[in-house]
Amino acid sequence: MLPPVNEQPPAKEARTKKADPVPPYIAFATMTKLFERMREEGAPPNVIDRSYLASMSGGYQGQVLAAFKVYKLINERGEPTDALSKLVESSPDDWPRLLDARTQEIYRSVLPLAGVKATQGQLERAFREAYGLTGSTMRKAIKFYLDISRFVSLPLSPHWRTPPRPPRMASAHPRPSSKVTVGRPKSGGTANMSDTSDVSEPTNSLEVQLASGGSVGLTISVDLFTLSGNDRDFIFDLVDRLHGYRTRFVDEGEDQEPPENGEPPDEEIA
Predict the structure, then answer these.
(1) What's the whole-number mean pLDDT along residues 215-226?
(2) Is residue 213 part of a domain?
(3) pLDDT(163) > 80
């Protein structure tokens, strides 16, 4: 008796295939600046770790280290490979040639699209299907791919460009307004603020998108006129921390790219 035929759909089988390595989604200029820094220092350090990237935010450090591993410039312990040593020893004019082979290997699922002048939609679909990337991570990965392809002179479709940044989510809460109403004085009298004061408790909301997905929100509903000093310090410390995270991590991850259409420039690497 023949065994039953496996009627499992092909799509499920495809998910068991080994996925392509996730390509870099840092600014390409960050990589070349690090090459230049190492050339000035005479050689790569014996290990490239977060302390060597101290001028960058913590999240961006991890992305840079992952990019160097994908390009086989460092091993899993962060130790420089022969490929990185050769890059640093070579003239920058030789960098395109030295990066070409690994670039073609990383983007082997995307390269054939350039020859058929694929559309932007086809490029983004390829990045989703081959690498499992979406949203802002996919956007940054495509920008890196376009930049390094131009650097090593790989063909590109004329229809390809860096996807636009997604719009920032607006807060679901309305902007607060604090209103103080002072009663009009009677003839010959003075205004009595305590009788007619109407001080609303405004609601402020701040939401920060996390670089690794998800979000953190802070909603504040207080009467600022009665807030104690300790409470005020505590609240504004929370607000400063959220703003600081968005500036140094999320916005940095979005904007550490060469200026484009007025975008902020790369982070300076010490």
Answers:
(1) 77
(2) no
(3) yes
Instruction: Let me know: does 99 contact 152? Beta carbons within 8 Å.
Output: yes
Q: Which two tokens stand for residue 77?
A: 């312990």
DSSP state of 93: G
- Could you tell me whether strands 203-209 and 215-221 are parallel, antiparallel, or unpaired per DSSP bridges? antiparallel
Evaluate whether 39 touches 91 at the Cβ level (below 8 Å): no
Residue 216: beta bridge partners? 208
How far is residue 63 from each of residues 25, 95, 185, 204, 209, measured CA to CA in Å? 7, 21, 64, 33, 17
Residue 75 inside a domain? The answer is yes
pLDDT digits (tens, 9 = 90+) for 78-96: 999 999 999 999 999 999 9
The contacts of residue 45 (CB under 8 Å, 6+ apart) are 38, 52, 80
Asked if residue 218 is part of any domain, the answer here is no
State how many domains the chain has: 1
